[in-house]
Each structure stands twice: as C-alpha cells, then as structure tokens.
Amino acid sequence: MANLGSLEAELRAKRDAGKKLLVPYITGGLEGWLEAIRAAAANGADAIEIGIPFSDPVMDGPIIQLASQKALDAGATPMSILNDLRRVDVSIPLAVMCYYNTIHNAGHERFANALAEAGVCAAIVPDLPLEESGPWCKAADAAGIETVMLAAPTAPDERLPRILDRVRGFVYAVGLLGVTGERDELASTALLLARRLKQLTSIPILIGVGVSNAEQAAEAVTVADGVVQGASVMRRLLEDGPDAVGEYVAEVRAAIDRVPVAKG
Amino acid sequence: MLQDPGVSGRFGEFGGRFVPETLVPACQELEVAFRDAWADPSFRSELDNLLREYAGRPSIITECHNLGKQLGIRLLLKREDLNHTGSHKINSVLGQVLLAKRMGKKRIVAETGAGQHGVAAATAAALLGLQCKVYMGEVDVQRQALNVFRMKLLGAEVVPAMSGSRTLKDAVNEAMRDWVATVETTYYALGSVMGPHPYPFMVRTFQSVIGDEAFAQCRDVLDGKDPDVVTACVGGGSNAIGIFSGFVDTKARLVGVEPAGGAAVGRGVPGVVHGMRSYLMQDEHGQVQEAHSISAGLDYPGVGPEHSYLASIGRAEYPSVTDAEVIEGFQLLAKTEGIIPALECAHVVAWISREAKNMQGQTVLMNLSGRGDKDVAQMMEILG
User: Fold this and answer.
1) Where residue A262 falls among pLDDT bands split at 50, 70, 90?
2) Which of A170, A241, B234, B278 has its CA 20 to 30 A from that of B225?
C-alpha cells in the first residue's frame, strides 16, 4: 500500500501485529486538555482525537456539549488550539474532530494547511457526509490530511462501499443511533455494523459513539479493530482532571489487550 | 416559478445536506417519499381537503383602507392569521404529518420558536393520531407560556432546550439530536424552509399555497394587475417564501423583513449549520452568534437557503427593523385596522410604515402570517 497517511499506516501496522486500537477523544481548549493528551499517550492510546469546540455540536450529547461550551468560554478558537498542539510532543498520531462550519469559515485549503502545520494527521467532520465532502477532501488530500469518514448503522448496503472508497485513516463506525454520550450497554448495532464493514474493507474499523467503559470497549473489539472513546474520557477530565484520564486510558488499554485476536 | 433544487438540494450555491451520516439515508428516503406523495393525486386531494375543511383555506385578502390612506399606499393583507391555530405554520404541518403517516412513522418531533409551529405540529399530530414531542428554547418557554400550555392541551410533550442561547437555534439542535437517535420510527417536522434537503424545498412547496391563492386574489382585487411590492417577515423564511412563490415571475418587488438582531442576510456571511449552507451570523472563528429579537419566531441567526439565493441574485431584498420599530408597528396595525398582528408580522408593518414615503401610490401586499394573541402578555409587560 503506497502513500498511506501516517495515521492509517500506524493503525494498520499495529492492527496487523495483533494489537487492538484505542483512540481517546479530548476537547481542545478545556482546562487540562494538553496534560490529558500527554496522560492518554503515556497510558497506551494509539492516536488521539482532538475536538475543536463548536457553538452548535449536533452530534454531541450533554458531556461533550458541556466540555465544548467551557472551552469556548475559556476563549479557545480553532487556531489557538492548533497553535497549542504544536507544543505537544507525543509520538502517536493526532486527529481533529470539527464541525464543518469551522472549516468552511476558515477556508478549505487554509484549514487543511493549518492542520498539517500543527502536526495533525487527520480530520473527522461529523456533519460532512460523503455527498458534501468533495471540496474539503480535495483540499485535505492536497495537504496530506487524512479524512476519516463515518459509517452509520442506518446505511443501506449499497452506501457502505462508496463511503469506504473515500475513507482515509480509519473508518469511524457509529456504534448506535444517537449522539455521543455514555450508555449502560454497548448497543447491538455496534457489532452488527462492524461485521458488515469487516466484509468490505481492510482499513482499520473503530467503533465510536456509545462505547462507555472498559468492558464495552472489550466487547467492541471482539469484532472491531478498535474503539474511539469520547464522553467517558471527557467526564473524567471534567470531574477529576488529566490524571484520571491517564488512569482510565490504562484501564481500557488493559481490558482490550485481554481480548484474543479474532481468527480469519 | 421557484426552481426545483434537484437531488443535491442546491439553490445556486446555497442549501445542500450537511447532516450526520446517520441521517443521510433518512433525508434521502424523505425526499423520495415527498416527491412521490406530491405527484400522487390521492395525497394532494387529502391535503387539499384538510386545508379547506380543517385549516379554513383559502385565507382571505383584507384591504387596509385606514392605514393605507394614512401611509399613502394601497395596503393588502393576506390573512394567514385566520387559519386554524393562528398562523401559516398549519399549511406545512398538515402536509408533513400526512406524509409522516404515509411513511409509516408513529411519532413526530418538532422545534419551535414562538410556539406557532409547535402548536400547529401538536394539532396535526392530535388530528392524525401521532405522538408529538416539541423542543422549545427555555427562554421562549418563558416568554410564550400560553403556547406551551396550548401544546400540552393538544397532547404534545414540550421539552425546554437548555443549551446555548436557549432559543430557536438550540431547539433545532435538540430536535436534530432526538432525530439522530430515533430516526427509524420518528418523523422530524421542521417548521421552516431551512435544514437539510429536502426540507427547504418541501416546506416551500407546502407553503406555496399562500402565494398561489394570493396571486389569483390580487388579480381579482387589482383588476388583473399584480401588486408593486410583496412583503413578509423572515426568520427561517417559510411564510415569506410561501407568498414570494406566487409572485416571483411578476414584476413585484419581493421584500423579506428581518429583525435587526437576527439579520442573517443583512449581516451574515455564508456558513453551514442545521444541515444547510446559507447566510449565517457567525464570528470570525465560525462560531454561530446568538440572535436577539423581541420576537421568538425570528430569533434565529440563520435563514433558509432559498432566501440566500434570492438575495444573491438580487431578486429579493432583505432590510431589517429594530425592536423599537416593531413595538410601534404592532400598535399601529391594531389601532388603525383592528387587527393585532404577531410580533413577527409587526416587523413588516414597521418596514412598510418606514418605507411608505418611497412607495407613494403603490400597492403593497403583506403576508400577515400570524395573529398576535400569543404576544399580548409580552406586550403588556413592555407597554406597561
């Protein structure tokens, strides 16, 4: 595979070596966020998703809404977050999660270049579906930014291959019908979707949205290659600070490492 | 004729479908279902019957002789305030709830600002036997307590939106979050010509009954002529697009009046929120700004994409008026014509009275999209 972006190359290499993948999400600009990134990296995260806070986060539930609002109230802007990220010398890949208006407002090329200059590998844009993604993907590809596409349980069979054609980095399998937030159980839709994707692609499949604790993460990786965890990480950062994030990431790391690699 | 935005849902460079992946198939299904229903004579006849026998259509045209004389213009009102539930919102909601039933949905969610769309949605859901949940900004729950109680009487659940500015923008966010979680069983009855494709197109199509009727009524009243000016208030812009749709091919000036504190076309730049690319009030970093208007129904930082398009090609213009002018306009129509307008429509009265000096002798058709009963308590506080 030539010309893989660094996020995809890293995740594929680890997955192919039999490792499960863990990507914690951290809202940029919130008090303690840089320390939380370092703590997550030191405790076994394979990559980190940095949320750029937005005034109207329609894919997010109460915890990430609260984190976003606090970050905005503290004066965070997309460019202040990217500037701060330059100072984070962790050795794992960084991706950003941002709503499309953040990109649209900055300009596609300018934003893609700003990500690259800040050392970010990839972007996840939850309100930019395949049909609208052309102009951004063109700019992102040109700047070497990998655009992670989302796949949802509602996608008909004919839609998934078209999404997978456009995926870079990894495919973000939306675990349930709903917004980000902690749930009592892993939704049955999560493993069903991961199985459907497995039949179609060799790119790493990570389940996110509704993977709420170490136990659920372990269940998710019985089928998927890994997990993205947002609300459960952010609740700890909001309530107990960066050290609690590190402890939690270590706990999830241990739980998913105990899951045997699926055959075939 | 206003154009069909096609499968990409574009009005020029505006519109589109910027929604979470989870909702894309639902929006696609909705577009197919809507086009299919609109082409089906039995659906159209069922809707026409409801509009006639339940909503009370056609709405009449009233000539304002007193205010017209005072201002030196000929002033006609399209009386959407006389519809069942008191506004134009019923036109779209009856269409959408019939469509929801046809699609086999059991439940609808809606957002509301002033409560007029929420009341209309609750009404249609009660009539057609669907569950209804309405999201309403917590600020609006306070200032429109009467409409909250009306919705509850009609059997709907009203949920205050507590995030952000706690107004219409945040109610839309909450309704979209609900829909992301319940999309398989739930129909999202959006209240205006906004949101992802096909909503701007579909809601405009349902509201075009206003313009179709008004065009024919004006030809009758004006001896075969068209009005010189056609005007309506614009928040999301559904009542305005409804009446504009009948006159876009005439020589009439089309004027959408925005609130000064929520002037998306007047003060915004193109942006993307709530599923659409349109003019949007936002800061230099792309954060959506909070609107500030005396009228809950217009307290919205965006605008329907077709209005952005009409503004960009110069076919319609979008001036704004201040809250103080609106308070004057509210009282002016009441005192001169015995008609208490919704605060939203008082924006249009305010613009007409301000601009009348430049329209002497002209005929102005105003869409009176809602009645002011809901605003009386708020005005009582303001006017003491």
Assistant:
1) low
2) B234
Q: Please tell me if residue A56 touches chain B, with a CB cutoff of 8 Å.
A: yes
Q: Touching check for A29 and chain B: CB below 8 Å? A: no
Residues of B in contact with A79 (CB under 8 A): 285
- How far the first Cα of chain A sits from its last, in Å, is 21
B93 and B185 in a single domain? The answer is yes
**A264 has pLDDT over 60:** no
Task: Looking at the complex, report in whole angstroms how far the Cα of residue B172 sits from the nearest Cα belonging to chain A.
Answer: 9
Active site residue B233: no
Quick one: pLDDT band at residue B73, thresholds 50, 70, 90?
Answer: very high
Angle at A73 between CA B113 and CA A83, to 5 degrees: 125
Q: Are residues B159 and B140 in the same domain?
A: yes
B236 neighbors B304 (Cβ within 8 angstroms): yes
Using a 10 angstrom Cβ sphere, with 0-12 exposed, 13-18 middle and 19 or more buried, the burial of residue B126 is middle
Residue B234 is predicted with a pLDDT of 98
Q: Using omega within 30 degrees of 0 as the cis cutoff, is the peptide bond preceding B198 cis?
A: yes
Q: Which domains does chain A have, with CATH numbers?
A: 6-257 (3.20.20.70)
Q: How many domains does chain B have?
A: 2
C-alpha A256: how far from chain center = 17
Does the distance separating the beta carbons of B282 and A105 come in below 8 Å?
yes
The reply to whether B46 and B64 lie within a common domain is: no
Q: Residue B95 falls within a domain, yes or no? A: yes
Q: Is residue B5 part of a domain?
A: no
Note which residues in 145-184 of chain B have CB less than 8 A from chain A.
Answer: 163-164, 169-170, 173, 176-177, 180-184
Determine the distance in angstroms separating the CA of B326 from the nearest CA of chain A, rounded to an integer.
Answer: 29
Distance (Å) from the C-alpha of residue B26 to the closest C-alpha of chain A?
A: 8
pLDDT computed for residue A55 by the predictor: 96
Range of the domain at B189: 10-50+89-199
Q: How many beta-carbon pairs below 8 A join chains A and B?
A: 115
- Asked if B289 and B375 sit in the same domain, the reply is yes
Q: Is B177 a member of any domain? A: yes
- Strand partners for B87: B370
Lookup result for tokens 């709530």: B274
Is A224 at the interface with chain B, CB within 8 A?
no
Task: Give the SS3 label for residue B236.
Answer: coil
pTM of the complete model beyond 0.80: yes
- Confidence check: pLDDT of B258 > 50: yes
Residue B220 is assigned to a structural domain of this protein: yes
Helices (H) and strands (E) in chain A, counts: 12, 9
Whether B110 and B128 map to the same domain: the answer is yes
Q: Return residues 269-298 of B near A (CB < 8 Å).
A: 270-275, 277, 280, 282, 284-288
Answer whether residue A178 shows pLDDT above 80: yes
Gap between the Cα atoms of B56 and B45, Å rounded: 15
| Domain final residue, candidates B199, B223, B251 | B199
Q: Are residues B270 and B177 in the same domain?
A: no
Residue pLDDT, tens place only, A7-28: 999 999 999 999 999 999 999 9
Which residue, B81, B103, B75, B117, is CA-closest to B231?
B75
Residue B383 has phi, psi (to 5 degrees) of -90, -10
What CATH number did the domain enclosing B309 receive? 3.40.50.1100
- pLDDT value at position A263? 54
Find the catalytic residue in A10, A60, A146, A219.
A60
Percent of chain B with pLDDT over 90: 96
Flag whether pLDDT at A3 surpasses 70: no
User: Nearest by CB to B287, which of A55, A130, A156?
Assistant: A55
- Quick: pLDDT tens for A47-72: 999 999 999 999 999 999 999 999 99
Checking if the pLDDT of A1 tops 50, the result is no
| Summary mean pLDDT of chain B | 97
pLDDT tens digits along A243-258:
999 999 999 999 999 9
Per the annotation, the verdict on B132 as an active-site residue is no
